[in-house]
Design a protein that fits this description.
With about 550 residues, this protein is of the alpha/beta class. It has three domains: about 160 residues, Rossmann fold; about 170 residues, 3-Layer(aba) Sandwich (Rossmann fold), CATH 3.40.50.1220; about 180 residues, Rossmann fold (3-Layer(aba) Sandwich). Helices cover about 40% and strands about 15% of the residues. The chain has 21 helices and 18 strands. The protein has a six-stranded parallel sheet with strand order 2-1-3-4-6-5, with helices on both faces. Strands 9-8-7-10-11-12 form a six-stranded parallel sheet. α4 links the parallel β3 and β4. α8 packs across α12 and α13 crosses α14. The longest helix has about 30 residues. It is globular.
Length: about 550
């Protein structure tokens, strides 16, 4: 076989049946051979970043390894930001790029560079295949590394001559690996002892709970403890039902604010996440004074990475959370159980007050012009089909999004983990490809949408049932918020305007942009027109765009 045949057959051996790509000349061996592999579907994109973003969300939406195919050094450079997002969101992803012929690389041919070095900082493993005889081994190892916790992207540079070389080495099947099924009982015992000494425990939950389907076990543990459940500042998944009485909000982005939010907690249980991702520096610990910290992770690396912990336990999420809850049930006395039940009652009362307060906010803002964010999110939530897969990158509108949707099921939600913008539109492509025929709702700000606007063409080209909702305030609103914070934190003058943060001159016209890429669209500026426009978009069954003129920063 030739190198490109081993490559494609190796993908098939590992369960891959589609490639997200933006091809070029050095990908000719791969493209030319696709006709001989009709089961391998190629999802074509107009920009490398969109291809990687779609592949990353496909992996996150399905749990399967995704493959993205790019073109040489500039193409890889275009995709680095999305590879970074995939790295931060722990998406099992294999990114490839065609490389120039190895026989002339020393002469620095056009578009060549050290591709493996370019990708190394944002991947778990980055290498170049030097001969077709290596192709089988490299692919097997790439799948292994991408799917070891913490999951993440790997990169393969594929020279055009290597892809055309002959080899006797056929594709290797994936390894059958059996990992420990239970956590260390000693760690569970220490964690249990610490929690039995709690007066005010809290839980901070990350994406790993959602990825591993351990939400039910976390619910039982939270109820056993009588603990509030807080979320990481940026979420890629919904790891705990928002309507549950113990569910709180997302934590802020600096240590002092996190510490203040956690209040008088004396035990902090961190479960399955990157604790903590900060935006602003503040001195001190994110934990309340005297609080003891317990952390549960699926792999060793995150344990105690940023902060020392009093007990760190490694194990699969479901059995580890279950073991801890059972240990607490066995070790708690009547007084402790009574105190936990009282905490549960207080949390339920607090949740009821917050729900009522948000409903009052919606009613107050219902007829406001421009259209208010509470009404926008309420109308979108009402219009979305119950089985819609939701891809959200609303940024400054995320608080209203979370309140309006109050998601209970993780399989409905994919958020923009990593912080690099432009993920929403690209991610909706991958989510839709991963769930054929299922309606997809993509909510994005206008600034974010322009980073991956080419995704609309792919949606039209592959006839994907996606409704793209663009929140158009014609500004980088988050930057204005952050500039206000900067001026306050660094004692800078605050009477200046917001420089280069408005998108109104000329105004972006998303309906026209969408039409140019084959996606019908409509702009809505009147509150009373919103429900009908959204209902019509979902009823169409194909890609549609709804641009909504919303209120900006005041």
């Amino acid at each position: 076989m030739r190198g490109h045949e081993v490559f494609l057959k190796s993908l098939a051996a590992h369960g891959v049946d589609r490639i997200f790509g933006n091809p070029g000349t050095t990908e000719s061996p791969l493209l030319d051979s696709l006709a001989d592999h009709p089961a391998m579907r190629y999802i074509v994109h107009l920009h490398e970043g969109v291809a990687v973003g779609a592949a990353s969300y496909y992996a996150r939406a399905t749990g399967r390894t995704a493959v993205a195919n790019l073109h040489v050094a500039p193409g890889l450079g275009n995709a680095i930001g999305m590879i970074y997002n995939a790295f931060k969101s722990q998406a099992p992803l294999i990114v490839t790029a065609g490389q120039q012929d190895t026989r002339m690389l020393r002469r620095d041919p056009i578009l060549s560079h050290d591709l493996a070095a370019m990708a190394a900082p944002v991947t778990k493993w980055s290498t170049e295949v030097r001969h077709a005889d290596e192709m089988d081994e490299v692919l097997r190892r790439a799948f292994k590394i991408a799917n070891e916790p913490p999951y993440g992207p790997v990169f393969l540079s594929l020279p055009i001559d290597v892809m055309a070389q002959e080899t006797r080495n056929g594709p290797q099947p994936p390894s059958r690996v059996f990992l420990p099924a239970q956590p260390d009982p000693r760690g569970i015992a220490v964690a249990c002892e610490l929690l039995l000494g709690a007066r005010e425990p809290v839980i901070v939950v990350g994406d790993e709970v959602a990825r591993t389907g351990a939400a039910a076990e976390l619910i039982r543990l939270a109820e056993r403890l009588g603990a509030a459940v807080w979320f990481e500042g940026i979420r890629g998944h919904s790891a705990f039902p928002a309507r549950h009485p113990h569910a709180r909000a997302s934590l802020p982005f600096d240590a002092a604010a996190i510490r203040k939010t956690l209040g008088s907690a004396d035990r902090v249980l961190l479960v399955g996440g990157a604790f903590f991702e900060e935006v602003w520096f503040t001195a001190g610990s994110p934990f309340p004074d005297g609080a003891r910290v317990i952390q549960i992770e699926a792999s060793v690396r995150p344990l105690g990475w940023n902060h020392s912990v009093d007990a760190g336990v490694v194990g699969p999420m479901e059995p580890t959370l279950q073991a801890l809850e059972l240990a607490l049930a066995a070790g708690a006395d009547a007084a402790w159980n009574s105190a936990a039940a009282a905490r549960c009652a207080v949390l339920a009362e607090q949740k009821a007050r917050e729900t009522a307060a948000y409903q009052a906010r919606v009613e107050k803002a219902w007829s406001r012009m421009p259209i208010s964010m509470p009404r926008v999110m309420t109308e979108i939530q009402r219009a979305a089909p119950p089985n819609a897969l939701i891809v959200e990158e609303s940024i400054t509108a995320s608080v209203d999004f979370a309140a309006a949707f109050a998601l209970d099921a993780d399989e409905r939600f994919l958020g923009a983990r990593g912080g690099g913008i432009g993920q929403g539109l690209a991610g909706a492509i991958g989510a839709s490809v991963g769930h054929p025929g299922r309606p997809v709702l993509c909510v994005s700000g206008d600034g974010s949408a322009m980073y991956s606007i080419q995704a609309l063409w792919t949606a039209a080209h592959h006839r994907l049932p996606i409704v793209f909702v663009i929140l158009a305030n014609r500004e980088y609103r988050v930057l204005k918020h952050n500039l206000d914070i900067y001026r306050q934190r660094f004692d800078a003058a605050s009477d200046k305007p917001y420089p280069h943060m408005d998108l109104g001159g000329p105004p972006l016209g998303f309906v026209a942009l969408a039409a140019g890429m084959g996606v019908p669209g409509v702009r809505v500026d009147q509150p009373e027109d919103l429900a009908g426009a959204l209902a019509e978009a979902f009823a169409d069954g194909g890609p549609r765009l709804v641009e909504i003129g919303i209120e900006g920063k005041r």
